[in-house]
Design a protein that fits this description.
Blueprint (H helix, E strand, L loop, with lengths): L10 H19 L1 H7 L7 H9 L1 H28 L4 H14 L1 H9 L14
Length: 124
Amino acid sequence: MGRYYHRWPRVPYMVSVGLAMGALTACHLAPESTISFLQILGPVTGFAQQIVENRALIGLTFRAMWLVHAAECLPTFYLSRKKGLSIAATAHWLLSVSIFGVFSLYWLIQYQPPLAPGLRKKQS
């Protein structure tokens, strides 16, 4: 039975990535209603409207974003299984990395599983 270890990314990263992915998804799926919403952005409105009106760029960016996040799941699965994490922990890592990307993958890379009791270094 594997260990359970999971850590979500820090809140500012979660909020910024969530807003960016949500805005990009809204621009791709409902551009007409998104343009009226973008009026509240002030000086960024012109740039945002230009992006929304260029459907090809939004579609390409939307697909590339999900493709990159899906590709990040491959090393996530490998690392979590290599570090001896349970299936539940692996599933949480896959979900976290598919949404937050490298901000979440960083914590999995940093995780060092504890050594088994018989493998601990002897203190001299």
